[in-house]
Amino acid sequence: MKKPIIAGNWKMYNTISQSCDLASQLVESLSLVKDVEVIICPPFTSLSEVTKIIKNTNIRLGAQNIYFEKEGAYTGEISPLMVKDVGCDYAIVGHSERRKYINEDNPLVNLKVRTTLEAGLYPIMCVGESLEEREKGVHEEIVYIHVTGGLLGLSEEEVKKVIIAYEPVWAIGTGKTATPLDAQSMHKFIRNTLSKMYNEDIANSVRILYGGSVKPENIKSLMAESEIDGALVGGASLTASSFERIVKFME
Ligand code: PEP
For 4-56, what is each residue's pLDDT tens digit? Predict the structure, then answer.
């Protein structure tokens, strides 16, 4: 059985000292958790301090974004090698907020996934349809394009390292969650897409997380679905007590 992943995306919240407080509380409350892979993704400015706090614990560090080149004259951008250097093992790529506000498209997401892997990081590649796309009934087509476009050209060995986060945009930060069955059905669709692109074994080895208003109250029913391998949590990861309850969903 795959180890469930619970990843917290802190988005553009928390100063360095607030990040350190939150990380310290999580170290205290989650240090005994062994059966869940716990990842936190603070803002870039907090990474170098948070990395010290979680050193030698079971909590792993992720970046919320990276650039698609490893170094160069790219003023203001941050290389995957730099986030690796600061202690990250993961990087979120193609989050819907970046697709929406920074116009990130599938070819760019694909470049970022590739560079992330080359830098020795695990990409958490976000995919998901908007409310309009769901209402039009084209949600599977959209997710198909996100998955195939984002993974274009990856070898079998590479794709096994990618974590996919299915995040229906209409459920992010809105309090609306996809029902566990809606999520299960899209995760199955993603798994079938991977199976066609690669094979069944590869498809089964890729971890597919659900994201979109995950809370202590709904995590258990989402995780009860066989195709849901974990969660990417935004708002509820900003409070130690709610993130702790999500991570400890099995208790
Ligand atoms: C996210 O930021 O990826 C997310 C799913 O946010 P929220 O949990 O707040 O919906």
Answer: 999 999 999 999 999 999 999 999 999 889 999 999 999 999 999 999 999 99
Decide whether any atom of ligand 1 lies within 6 Å of the 173 Cβ.
Answer: yes
Superfamily of domain 5-247: Aldolase class I (3.20.20.70)
Residue nearest atom 8 in ligand 1 by C-alpha distance: 234
Q: Cα angle at 69 between 237 and 117, to 5 degrees?
A: 60
The CA-CA-CA angle for residues 45, 175, 30, to 5°, reads 50
Taking the alpha carbons at both ends of the chain, their separation in whole angstroms is 18
51 neighbors 90 (Cβ within 8 angstroms): no
State the Cα–Cα distance between residues 13 and 19, nearest whole angstrom: 9
Q: What is the pTM of this model?
A: 0.97
Given the residues 95, 139, 146, 187, the one annotated as active site: 95
Q: Could you tell me the residue ranges of all domains in the chain? A: 5-247
> What pLDDT, in 10s, does the model give residues 194-203?
999 999 999 9
User: What is the distance between the alpha carbons of residues 138 and 140, in angstroms, rounded to a whole number?
Assistant: 6
Q: What confidence score (pLDDT) does residue 145 get?
A: 98
Q: Which of 90, 92, 232, 238 to mutate to test the pocket of ligand 1 (most atoms within 8 A of CB)?
A: 232
Q: Is 28 a catalytic residue?
A: no
Residue 71 among the catalytic residues: no
CA 163 to chain centre: 7
CB contact at 8 A, 59 and 41: no
91 neighbors 124 (Cβ within 8 angstroms): yes
Going by alpha carbons, the residue nearest to atom 6 of ligand 1 is 234
